[in-house]
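Readers of this paper often ask what the protein records in our data store actually look like. This encoding replaces a full spatial description with a residue-level series of whole-number codes. For reference, a complete record is included directly beneath this paragraph.
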Amino acid sequence: MIITESDLRANWSKEKITVLKIPPGSVITPPAREFIRNKGILVEIEGEGAIDFTGLTYSTAIHSKQDEKAHGRKTPSAAFGEALWNSDKRKAYADRQEKPARNTASGAVLLDKTGHPVVYQSDRAGTSDGSVKTDLPVTPDPPVKPVPTAKSEKPEYMTHLNGKKLVVKSDPVIRLRGQLDSFISQLVETELWFLEKGCTGIAEKLHEVVVFCRGLMQAEVLGKEFDFPLIFGFNKEQLREISHDPMKYFGVKHSFVSKKHGMSVAKLHILRSKSREVELAAVDAFVTENGKCSREDIVSALNRLSSIMYILVCLEKARLKDGGALPGASSGVRRFDVNIGVSNRHIHLSQSDLEVLFGAGYQLTKKKELSQPGQYAAKETLDLTGPKGTIDHVRILGPVRKASQIEISVSDSIKLGLEPPVRDSGDIDATPGIVLEGPKGTLELKKGVIIAKRHLHLDPATAKELGLKDRDVITAELRTERPILLEGIGVRVSDQYATDLHIDVDEANAALAKNGDKAVLILKAQPGLSEGRHGALEG
């Protein structure tokens, strides 16, 4: 049990107590001991009787001997008491130690008119010849006020809950404050991240949540009622309804967090999870085992906080897919996330050309799988030679094709001294040729060098959901540190394809993009495309 000065003052102002009974092993803080001495309060340890607390004789180590014997070791409170007793300031008063005041038959201590225990001469030390002086009461020495030290302020493991009330730092309310403080810091960090990305709308909403949480913290610390404000223009009941039906309000389904949603959604999901931890900390702090809650305003507000964060998750998912259109708004466009695949210069060969360069009956050796099913990067490479230069070790992709084709970037064409057109793969009529040098021979192609047109691979089911068909042309935004808008993207639909947006190295470098980054397809609204079908994309 920890006895603090604020506890004693509260009881003194109500009852003017003169006797304080405490269990063995109790810890009395330095300010509390000072208060006991000044008020002349008698301290009794249960099972051990009264003790003299008018001087500097109290030590939890001394008065916890019964606990120590029972446990066969020093109790934590005894060890704490010894630390206090052995301090330099306490030793300075060791010679002034008094014996305990005489107990009456009932175990209580006789008090004088001032409320101090009566000390008898026979309780003093005897004379030099062992005789004892007359048994008359004497006036006790006035209490000696200890010299203040740094240790007498408060123990390091305790802190102020409010005002002068001390609690241990593991107190549930202190834990709640720490959780809420941590959550606010994460909110601000995420707000700054969205601002850096240019997403001012979501950043402004995060700031609303920051202000909301600061108000919660202030209401708890000051003991004031928390008045729930409008968040995003909605009250508590409306926030709950919106969070329970994201398809109705945002056109997205309930779903677990996934890497396909991107970093922005993941960051908001982290905040949502953290808000649940803050709510549980509030329940620990304010709800008793029998279900009685002392701060329903705070617990209720934190319960709604998780709804607020889930609404932000859904808003961001809707922004990425639907251009941020709110319920009832008609933006005229839809959006869809895809992965970016960066294509470096590479070679496709026919079987006959492969055998010229590597020998009769030669087969390519697979090095690694590519994003499109069945396609792979081979271990084999060739040197490309044009009118003005050579590029060594250009990778061959497999499997072999009907006709050989070389795909390079604009930068490569300048080095080689060629002017290839921008073409779809396979469209090689009226294109420049090039010289290929292999380990078994040299081959001069008359045609086949192109700059590949940026294109989107789609399987039929996804193309249908998007309202797209083979050979359509669309626009996409590369969401990178250096975002750019790419127009004229050709759509290729096949049951042999996986969804992927292919661009070349020059285009990727312009946007500081790399494999696995996200692009957002910007699609014109298609007649007859239902909200339910659009929502199914979220799966």
Observations:
- The longest strand covers residues 333-343.
- The first helix runs from residue 5 to 15.
- The chain has a mean pLDDT of 78.
- The two ends are 56 Å apart (CA to CA).
